[in-house]
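yo

u said u wanted the structure for the complex thing, so here. seqs first:
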Amino acid sequence: MVIELINTGTELLIGRTLNTHQQWIGAELAGHGYALERQVTVPDTGPAIESAAREALTRAQWVMVTGGLGPTSDDLTRDLIAGLVGVPLQTDPEVVKHLEEFCRRRGRALNESIRRQAQVPQGAMVLQNRHGTAPGMVMLVPPGRFQAGPAWLVMLPGPPRELRPMVREQLIPLLKRLSPLSRPFAGRVLRLTGIGESQVEARIESALAPLVGSGLRVAYCARPGEVDLRFDAIGSTAAGLVASAVEIALGAVGDWVFGEDEEELEQVVVRKLRSHSATLATAESCTGGFLAHRVTNVPGASEVFRGGWITYANEAKRQWLGVLATDLETHGAVSAGVVVQMAEGARKNAGSDYALAVTGIAGPGGGSEAKPVGTAYIALAGPRGTQVLRVVNPWDRLTFKQVTAQQALDLLRRELDSRKDSAPDNPQGCGR
Ligand code: AMP
Ligand code: MG
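structre next:
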């Protein structure tokens, strides 16, 4: 079965917006054993969208079109696709209700341009948009129109926060129901931190070789501060192959595995803090609040996160966290002695069980022979004392923040895992 993707939007072509749909939808499909075969990006103009859809419909059994469903004059997809398939648009009463409710909740008037989004091609299935106004639509293109057999044409809204839940919750189940895979599929992703992808490969490659010979596929994806290790297989032995691969990987690199699939490190840390009924505070210099930002991105963080300090200036470290002026002078703000005092000061002031502190040289200036750009000290103060880590992350400022925050969170994850009262709280059964 052939699946093709058409991303519409001039902003994607002129580089104003990164086309994340291509990567995200491709990964989502692959996670369920479906392969995206071709992708094209076209401008918002009528002829470009129409010719891309027409061409894809001669080959693919599923054509997914993203963007251009909104209320503005450059949102042409709905009208063009309906015209191309030769189906009239009709007002869908359910979508009108949704639009009314959506506007009422936000105290906005339901004007004509918003109402236009309730226009649905006759006979199309509607995918509810829980996070916005434009619904998704799925149309059956009858056999003989563009190719001998039938095809499914899907329209999805442009904003990622609307498209993603719609794909995951509605489109993938529909795809599985309407076009089930001919052979069983199994796939799992392990997420690692604190180790490079080539090191992961070196540690597992030979042990996995017999499974690879039997059809297991292994893929690595490195991002700042993390590596995804993906296993999948097709056929009657797929589940067994993937399960054996996961077992081998956990044996060889399990120490660096923090989670599975979509789970982020901050989610793992908040989950573990909650399971220990433990609280956290943060004291940040070079990460500028990024650590607290990541922790507070997790729903339920309020149960465990007491608060944090961004102590960028020496004076702030001294005044708010009680760092000694003599240590700042003698050792510098980027030093083990200072980061320990930051963590212990934050723990004491916040009255929390744990406190994470970071101080470092984000660059591009400010490095020295002894402390090159990228040097950071991370401390974790807790009931069992204070630990310090020295790392060197010589990246651009944002990547530096991401990687340093990652290392700090991982220090806490490891500490929580090594507690004597640590229960096996990981629902997916991985981790240390
Ligand atoms: P549209 O429905 O095309 O008007 O898009 C609405 C919003 O979603 C705009 O802010 C777009 O930049 C964004 N968007 C559209 N397509 C993509 C895409 N392929 N990747 C990321 N963002 C997108
Ligand atoms: Mg657009």
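The radius of gyration is 26 Å. Confidence is low (pLDDT under 50) at residues 426-432.
cya
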